[in-house]
Structure formats: C-alpha cells, structure tokens
Design a protein that fits this description.
CATH architecture of the largest domain: 3-layer Sandwich
Largest sheet: 4 strands, antiparallel
Strand order of the largest sheet: 2-3-4-9
Structural class: alpha+beta
Order of helices and strands: HHEHEEHEEEEEEEEEE
CATH topology of the largest domain: Rieske Iron-sulfur Protein
Distance between the termini: 76 Å
C-alpha cells in the first residue's frame, strides 16, 4: 500500500468532517440505548406480580364450613376450609387450611385479651365478628401447629410446650404472645375469612403474608 493511502487513514479530516462523524457515532449509541430500554421494560414488567395480587384476600366459607363454625361454643372447635390463594405469579388455587373458633363477641374478647386492644398493637380488624372469634392455627413461638386438649382445657403446642386458654391467652411456655386472631366478615350473604401469617417469636403482630 502506498504512502498516500496510509496517510489517508491517518488523516482525521477537516473539523466539519470530524464533527459529522462524532454526531453519527453518538446518534447510533443513543438509538441503541433507546432500543435496549424498550426491550428491558417489557421483560421487567413480565417479572412483576399481576395487578390483582392484592385484589381479594378473602376466602368464603361453604355452607358446610359455616355450619361447622356455628357449632362453636366457648369450647374451641376446629374448622377446615379452602384457602383461596392469589400469588401474582401463579394461577389462583385453593389449599385446605383450618382455624380454631370460639363463640365470643367483641366485649368478651376485650375482657379476656386486653393486649389485642392496647395502644401500639391494635389489630387493623375486629378480633370478633358475627358472634365468633377465630384463631390462626400457627403457634406464635416458632410456627408449629397447636391443638385443643380437652382433658387440660387448653391449647397446647406439641413442639415447645406453649399453652393458651380458650380465648387464646398465653398461659405458659416460650410463646411471646397469645394466639393470633384472623379476620372474619359477612359479604354477599357468606362468611369469609382472611388468612394472615405473622412473624413468629415477637410480642408484636408483624404481618408477613395476607391471603
């Protein structure tokens, strides 16, 4: 290759030519960034939960399940129901769960579980409704499932020995608080339940999951 050709590659050109080349290079880079952003937004959006993830966290009780609830007295009964779960990433699904129920009104619960009404830890829902109070079956200590023991007239957790009376008051054992009530309401002629998972091992009600 001759010297003239080599000099042509080394010659940066006039200021006008340099400016034009710089503009074209920046334009290509900018266009690439816009295209990349346009691709990234749909990809990120596809990973986000659907808009209905918090739309409805209530599970209606069937006629049989409500009939079971109505059998509750001050002696707790176990009520099994289908928990309607909406994940946001997966299609809605039903999972069999249960809660414990007693017959109680708000005044009765306020008398027997005053800590649930104390300033600073007031639950954002009535702890008794429709004439009943219902409790999560998850022990607030480390998450085991407790049971009602008839001959001892109390709830007992088999894992670490925490004990509670029929109103969910903490009586003994390492649990840092009493049993956690669950929301109960009437809507469109049906009783509905909201499933809440609270943080374990703390005296405060810290919500980890609803529904």
């Amino acid at each position: 290759m001759g010297q003239g050709h080599a000099e042509a590659y080394d010659n940066p050109g006039t200021p006008e030519e340099q400016s034009r080349r710089s503009f074209m290079a920046n334009a290509v880079i900018g266009l690439g960034g816009v295209i990349g952003l346009g691709l990234a937004i749909p990809l990120v959006t596809s990973l986000l939960p659907g808009a209905d993830v918090t739309a409805d966290k209530w599970s209606p009780l069937t006629a049989d399940e409500f009939a079971a609830l109505q059998k509750a007295t001050e002696k707790p009964i176990k009520v099994t129901f289908n928990l309607h779960e909406t994940d946001g990433y997966l299609p809605p699904a039903d999972e069999e769960q249960f809660f414990w129920a007693i017959k109680a009104d708000l005044a009765t619960m306020q008398k027997n579980r005053p800590e649930l009404f104390a300033t600073g830890d007031t639950l954002p829902y009535p702890v008794a409704n429709l004439g009943f109070a219902i409790f999560s079956p998850i022990c607030p200590h480390l998450g085991c499932r407790y049971s009602w023991v008839d001959d001892q007239n109390r709830f007992i957790c088999p894992c670490h020995g925490s004990q509670f009376n029929n109103f969910g008051e903490h009586l003994a054992g390492p649990a840092p608080r009493g049993l956690d009530p669950l929301p109960l309401r009437e809507a469109s002629g049906k009783a509905e339940v909201t499933w809440i998972e609270y943080k374990q091992g703390t005296p405060d009600h810290i919500v980890l999951k609803i529904g």
